[in-house]
Model the fold of this input.
Amino acid sequence: MRLFAYALREYDELGYLQKMASERGFEFGWTPEYPTAKNVGLARGYDAIDIITSPMGADLLKAFHEVGVRNVATRTIGYDHIDVAAARDLGMRVAHAVYPPEGVANYSIMLMMMAMRKVKLIMRGNDSQSFGLRGKIGMDISSATVGIVGTGRIGATVARHLAGFGCKLLAFDPYPNQDVARIATYVDLDTLLSQCDAITLHAPGMAENYHMIDADAFAKMPQGAVLVNAARGSLVDTAALIQSLENGHLGAAALDTIENEANLYYHDKSRDVLPNHDRAILDSFPNVIVSPHMAFYTEEDVEDMIRTSCEALLSFDVSEDSPYEVH
Done:
């Protein structure tokens, strides 16, 4: 197999890819550039491409197919940036990556605790030598009721780790997890929203989940509730989120992902005017943490993103099944 990797980071991913290629005996080329119609030719002569979060629509997939690419893998769990139906029509197989859930789960818990203890406000005051206590009193996670929306691998890990803090756990998922049911109480979404001091989202970014947290959902939350989203930006109606924060109903938010973040994160934008008003507004609030989609970013997870995406492409190359294939 000959693989071409796009948007590959030389300072972390390249070493893992070199190791994988040496162990499994395949050739690869790479570029730090994201795949576009202008650089499709870089993949000419390669059997497969390995990408990250850049959009792969029907036209771009067709262009890659025309230069000989037969399979596509994304180094991410999510694959909503790929037109899977168009790839299937072209005869191209698509895979996503799988990595340990602990990285995202623990980052989510960290964000939750930072929001509940008003760390952003405290550190802003610290930087300006404002050491007073007024307005900085927080909530202890151990005395809170926490709601987990989505109990797949990551949500289930969040539940297991939060159980150690002693907080009361409620969970919502159309497909309850028996292991989670031993430590959390499954309820309907409305009940979870209305009874939880903190709510953390771990649902997939499917069409049916679009804006599942909207104005009605915020209205059902208790005064002062905390919302954490380290899943998909599309789960939350940003306009409704901002309104709930501005009117003082929502107590805080900790967001590792937001709507319309494509072509924003993982780039150096330090000298740019960002075309994202919502992010600017949210980041200006003292009770909102906005991090740049970093929950996955651990050594263990990055290595597995390389490994599992390559394993899928190796399986495709010899017409074998892969547990990482997107159907």
